[in-house]
Amino acid sequence: MKPLINVTDLSVSFSGDDGKVTALDNISFSIPEGKTVCLVGESGCGKSVTAKALLRILDNHAAIESGRIEYQRADGDLMDLAQGPAKAKHIRAIQGNEISMIYQEPMTSLSPLYTIGNQIVEVLRWHTNLSFEEAKFQAIEMLRLVGIPSAADRFDSYTFELSGGMRQRAMIAMALICNPRLLIADEPTTALDVTTQAIILDLMRELQKTRNMSMLFITHDLGVVADIADEVVIMYLGNVVEQGPVEQILTNPQHPYTKGLLASLPHTDGKRRARLNAIPGVVPSLQNRPKGCPFQDRCDHFVAGLCNEKLPELTAISGVQSVRCHGFGAQADLVPLHTSTSQVDDCCMLQTR
Question: Model pTM?
Fold first, then answer.
């Protein structure tokens, strides 16, 4: 399928008093047209940095060291978003227009000093030549489309006058007002209750289908992944460790980290007192990135002299699924990797849409 975004060997570093640390280490993945790709991983794995790099809104102390972010524009032109300064005219023309973003917490992203209507109008007028009245009409229609009741009245509401679900709807309206080709959603439902989360996910899925929009959805919730994803990219400490179609990743995981994430889900067999499986340890800090495989300290299949010396290659194990582990590829016979999925047999079996 034709990719809208094709990321190749992208590396991002952060500069500090102790020098540079690598946040993204030569990651590669694609976002097909009209599909949803979920970035999955624990906190500190590089999901949000990846999203900000695509939109070129990295913090001042972060920089793209190498790699390409090839974006296929509607007219067929291929643009490398990784090249040139972030404030370049061609980049600013993309931001919030062809590629937009929804953040996790609306209260930190929406201004409390302006009404939600004025903030949506400002985005629209920045990228078009519409008058205020024309932009206001479109903003009200968009607020109505995302399910905000009495949209004309809510146009003049401030952020603090809205509930959490309504704030998130307002942010979605702002992100969609310019009809973007790619929507990046950075854990947009984490701060919401379960019922509101389900409503927002249904809304985003419906808007994506009706607009044939691509979506990069960042989450740590595998239930959300099963509900919304077409393809999944598993990240760990700035590396892509496994990727493929959602059905393959959830029913036939291969990387030990992916298996551990699935095994940590609650049981559905009635054993309420059963202890949840957990991945031992924590994600290392960027300053303490281990040599070799980044998952080595938490992996049950660690092989000294191999896993702690050499970073495994991302190996294709089928036409659609790939995994970064020494248990696959040229040195697979050196790693006692269990290829069965018995580790996740007893956990919550997710049903993909």
Answer: 0.89
CATH code at 57? 3.40.50.300
| 47 close to 39: Cβ distance less than 8 angstroms | yes
> Does some domain include residue 67?
yes
Long-range contacts of 74-78 (CB under 8 A, 24+ apart): 74/98, 74/181
- Tell me phi and psi for residue 94, to 5 degrees: -85, -40
Rounded to an integer, the average pLDDT of 43-68 is 94
Residues 213, 146 share a domain: yes
The amino acid at residue 115 is: T
Provide the percentage of residues in the chain whose pLDDT is more than 90.
Answer: 63
High-pLDDT (> 70) share of the chain, %:
92
Report which DSSP code applies to 35: -
Q: Report residue 350 as tokens.
A: 């997710």
Residue 147 and residue 32: Cα distance in Å, rounded?
27
- 282 plus 214 within the same structural domain: no
**At residue 3, what are phi and psi to the nearest 5 degrees?**
-80, 140
Q: Is 57 exposed, middle or buried (0-12, 13-18, 19+ CB in 10 A)?
A: middle
Residue 341: band (very low, low, confident or very high) from pLDDT cuts 50, 70, 90: very low
Contacts of 249 (CB under 8 A, 6+ apart): 232, 234, 242, 243, 258, 321
